[in-house]
Specification:
Blueprint lengths: L1 H15 L1 E3 H8 L3 H13 L3 E4 L2 E4 L10 H4 L4 H12 L7 E4 L19 E4 L2 H6 L7 E4 L3 E3 L4 E3 L1 H9 L4 E4 L3 E3 L3 E4 L2 H11 L5 E4 L11 E4 L6 E3 L6 H9 L3 E3 L5
Parallel strand pairs: 4-5, 4-9, 5-6, 9-12, 12-14, 14-15
Antiparallel strand pairs: 1-3, 2-3, 7-8, 10-11, 11-13
Length: about 260
């Protein structure tokens, strides 16, 4: 799978700092043209730099893939407020998708009283927490575990998303900017998020104030692909202007 290969190339480069095209072709058993297309995506994302005969790791100011345990405690109060505001928008009887992330994971406790609600997710945290709420129908996408992000990834996740009709989708992001859109540090997760933003239903992007003007490894969508942005405080004017120009509604918690 292309996304998995790109992820593995990036991980190899983190270990070695430099690697040749010939080595990559041998490791992955693909042609040079295929490898060139892969590294072009990494170069566009600012993660690598092409050199004669190969590639090197680029020391860019991008957010790396951090362990879930590190991210989940950062700005936790803000994340809980955002999740509560998002959960208030969910109605009984809906089918929603909860993206994996350290903000979206806080949705579930606020949905406990909903009736006939179906939740589809690739978040291992949400699946584990769901065992406490027997009245909710929670569907796992299946897939391969990517431990650093506490999420399931791979072709079965994409297939599951294609098969379901969602009432609403709640998305997460490592960072957002007007220039780079919604970004993420995991190529495998980016493939999932790209699939989600193509679904024909309202899409809500949940990001705390620290995520603004941050670009991570890969862009999975322009901001204009989402319908709502839910955050904990008023962002900079350039974001407000972009939202207004692209019919994106900004939602803040009530006490703000």
């Amino acid at each position: 799978m292309k996304a998995e290969r790109i992820h593995q190339i990036h991980e190899l480069l983190r270990e070695r700092k430099r690697i040749s095209l010939d080595e990559l072709c041998e490791i992955f058993g693909v042609s040079k043209n295929t490898i060139r297309r892969d590294i072009s995506e990494l170069e566009e994302a600012g993660a690598i730099k092409k050199v004669y005969g190969g590639i090197v790791l680029k020391e860019a100011e991008i957010t790396p893939l951090e362990p879930f345990s590190t991210r989940e405690i950062r700005n936790i109060n803000e994340k809980k407020k955002i999740a509560a505001a998002a959960a208030a928008l969910v109605n009984d009887g809906e089918v929603i998708y909860i993206d994996s992330g350290t903000t979206t994971m806080h949705l579930l406790p606020h949905l406990a009283e909903k009736q006939f609600l179906t939740i589809v997710t690739a978040s291992v945290y949400v699946l584990d927490l769901a065992t406490r709420y027997g009245n909710l129908t929670v569907i796992s996408t299946g897939g391969n575990l990517q431990a650093p992000i506490n999420a399931l990834v791979g072709p079965s996740v994409l297939e599951c998303i294609r098969n379901y009709n969602f009432s609403k989708i709640f998305l997460a992001s490592t960072g957002i900017s007007v220039e780079h859109g919604a970004t993420n540090a995991s190529p495998l997760e980016c493939e999932i998020k790209k699939e989600l933003v193509q679904k024909d239903c309202p899409k809500y992007l949940l990001v705390d104030n620290s995520k603004f003007d941050v670009a991570s490894l890969m862009t999975y969508s322009d901001l204009k692909a989402v319908d709502y942005v839910i955050t904990d405080s008023r962002p900079a004017d350039k974001f407000l202007e972009y939202f207004a120009a692209n019919n994106i509604e900004l939602i803040l918690p009530e006490d703000d």
